[in-house]
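> example.struct
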């Protein structure tokens, strides 16, 4: 269980205060949320990506911690064109250029580990095979293939004897992330992808050890986190959850509060560095489905990072109140490489152009100007 959030603190913490997140020493509590940008042709990161992350890495102007765009742990884990992988030696070497650029600016970067499950298309799958999931039910969602968003392919249900291999793929990816110089890893268990496809009874209708009740449905996530924490170290391992986000056609669990409290209670022995919560519908309404985040947090001892639609005022308040240790910003970081500075100095935020979110070149990626005075870093 969680002790009082800030037992030794006499003054209220600020968004701009340092924070220990597991073994990481953040210089401020502004986190860059993971943002898929589809600019890794052939799944290998580019020099342009290094520039993009470096622009946001200086804690004096950018983020105290960057979470990378979601990166597939295996060829089977890919669901969109030109997303980076974190499983081959080419990818590791290319990510090393990115992490070096971030570290040169004094920043920290975690790698988001991703398996999309059924949110994919046969044309992206090894050998043109079916995407995989907990259950053989097609997602009412779309993925990007050959430059356009098209309907997901019908998945097949993974066999029980395939699941240890999925766990091993996560462990391998975590090792690759460490080899590539990342400071931490974030296991992506949010937004309707594979791990959430096992968690929720809106989809997981398996019988046996990886389905059914809470223990069965939380087994894959638990084993993945045990394996990943073993590779990366628990002080460098976090996870992302979105307890009531219905995105990617997953819908709601019949008992989200009980499910997610079970998840964190079961993970407690691992002493993970951070939990990263998408509150409400990802990129949408924060309060459509009631959920008691404070009750959930009582099952977690590490740093509590919140996200989804945060304004400056909301973020300052959340940290001051102790409701969160840090706040992650997604869309605002696309158009404001110096978001940290703008937050600190109460400067207006530029709007991001949605047309350039996914795929493309420098336009709408590395060409958003900073207004902060340049630092020597
Ligand atoms: C272009 C774009 C790409 C995204 N990619 C990811 C991703 O790779 N992994 C993830 O967990 N969330 C992803 N998200 C969700 C964001 O991390 C974040 O949860 C969401 O934008 C809400 O936060 P915000 O209101 O601060 O933007 C993405 C969102 C956008 C707009």
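> example.seq
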């Amino acid at each position: 269980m969680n002790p009082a959030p800030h037992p030794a603190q006499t003054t209220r913490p600020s968004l701009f205060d340092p924070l220990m997140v597991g073994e990481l020493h953040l210089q401020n509590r502004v986190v860059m949320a993971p943002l898929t940008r589809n600019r890794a042709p052939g799944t290998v990161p580019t020099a342009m990506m290094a520039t993009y992350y470096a622009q946001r890495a200086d804690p004096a102007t950018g983020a105290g911690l960057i979470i990378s765009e979601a990166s597939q742990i295996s060829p089977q884990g890919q669901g969109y064109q030109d997303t980076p992988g974190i499983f081959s030696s080419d990818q590791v070497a290319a990510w090393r250029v990115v992490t070096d650029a971030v570290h040169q600016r004094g920043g920290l970067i975690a790698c988001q580990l991703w398996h999309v499950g059924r949110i994919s298309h046969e044309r992206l799958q090894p050998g043109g095979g079916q995407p995989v999931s907990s259950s053989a039910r097609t997602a009412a969602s779309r993925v990007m293939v050959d430059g356009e968003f098209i309907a997901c392919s019908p998945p097949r249900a993974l066999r029980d004897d395939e699941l240890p291999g999925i766990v091993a793929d996560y462990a391998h990816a975590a090792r690759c992330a460490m080899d590539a110089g990342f400071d931490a890893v974030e296991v992506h268990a949010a937004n309707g992808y594979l791990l959430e496809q096992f968690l929720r009874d809106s989809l997981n209708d398996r019988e046996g050890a990886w389905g059914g009740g809470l223990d069965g449905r939380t087994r894959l996530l638990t084993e993945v986190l045990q394996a990943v924490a073993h590779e990366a170290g628990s002080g460098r391992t976090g996870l992302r959850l979105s307890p009531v986000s219905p995105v990617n056609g997953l819908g709601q669990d019949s008992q989200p509060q009980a499910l997610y409290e079970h998840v964190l209670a079961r993970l407690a022995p691992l002493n993970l560095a951070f939990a990263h919560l998408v509150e409400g519908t990802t990129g949408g309404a924060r309060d459509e489905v009631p959920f008691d985040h404070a009750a959930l947090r009582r099952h977690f001892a590490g740093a509590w990072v919140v996200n989804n639609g945060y304004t400056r005022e909301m973020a300052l308040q959340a940290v001051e109140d102790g409701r969160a240790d840090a706040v992650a910003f997604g869309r605002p970081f696309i158009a404001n490489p110096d978001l940290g500075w703008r937050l600190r100095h109460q400067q207006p935020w530029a709007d991001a152009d949605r047309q350039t979110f996914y795929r493309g070149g420098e336009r709408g990626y590395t060409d958003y100007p900073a207004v902060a005075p340049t630092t020597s870093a």
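> remarks
Residues 33-36, 69-70, 112, 188, 190-191, 240, 278, 282-283, 307-310, 329-332, 357 surround flavin mononucleotide (CB under 6 Å).
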